[in-house]
C-alpha cells in the first residue's frame, strides 16, 4: 500500500463551489479504478475548522504501486495539471491500515498529521508505538478507517484518519471535509498495509 496526497492552495477569495462541482462531476470516474484502494476528495476552507487557507487536497491509498504511476502519468492527472499547475505529490509507504466501527458509512471528514522522527529515535520502536496508537484509534466510535505511512527520505510518519462525522476537536492534525470517497479497492488494504 502507498499513501499519496497533493495540495492545491487556492486564493482566499476563491469560489470553492468550483471545486465542489469538479468533484461532483469527476469524482465518480475513479469509483472503479483498478489498483486504487481509496481516494478521499478533501478540501479545507478558509475560516472553517481553523483552516487559514482554501485548499483542494485529496488523499489516496493505493493497493498497487503501478496503478499509482499510471494515474500520475495519465489523462486524469494531466487535466488537474492543466487547470491548476503541477502540484508536488507526497507519498508514504503504507505501514498499517485498519477499518473502524463506521467503515460502512460514508465519511464526511478526515484528519492528517505528520510527525518527523527525532534523529535519536529508534524507527522500529517509534513505528511500533504509532501502530499501537492506530489500533486503539480504529476502535473509536465514528472512525471509518485509519492509516499510518512512512516517508523514509525524511523519516516522517503520516497519520490519516477518515471520520463518519466531523473529526472530534480533541484530534490532532489538519481537518479536511470529504466531498466524495472513491473506494474501489478498500477490501485490498489489509491491516499491515500490503495487498492481500
Give the tags.
single chain; 196 residues; alpha+beta; Alpha-Beta Plaits; eight-stranded antiparallel beta barrel; 10 strands; 22% helix
What would your notes on this structure say?
With 196 residues, the chain is of the alpha+beta class. The protein has a single domain (2-188), classed as Alpha-Beta Plaits (2-Layer Sandwich). The protein is 22% helix and 35% strand. The chain has 4 helices and 10 strands; from the N terminus they run E-E-H-E-E-E-H-H-E-E-H-E-E-E. It has helices at residues 17-26, 65-72, 75-84, 123-138, and strands spanning 2-6, 8-10, 36-44, 54-56, 59-62, 89-99, 109-116, 143-151, 156-163, 174-182. An 8-stranded antiparallel barrel has the order 1-5-3-10-7-9-8-6. Strand 8 and strand 9 (156-163) form a beta hairpin. 35% of the residues are buried. The mean pLDDT is 93.
Q: What name does CATH use for the topology?
A: Alpha-Beta Plaits
Gyration radius, rounded? 16 Å
Query: What's the number of extended β-strand segments?
Result: 10
**Span of the ends, CA to CA:** 10 Å
Provide a concise account of the structure shown:
The protein is α+β, with helices and mostly antiparallel strands and 196 residues long. It contains four helices and ten strands.
Q: Helices and strands in order, then pairings?
A:
Blueprint: E1 2-6, E2 8-10, H1 17-26, E3 36-44, E4 54-56, E5 59-62, H2 65-72, H3 75-84, E6 89-99, E7 109-116, H4 123-138, E8 143-151, E9 156-163, E10 174-182
Antiparallel strand pairs: 1-5, 1-6, 2-4, 3-4, 3-5, 3-10, 6-8, 7-9, 7-10, 8-9
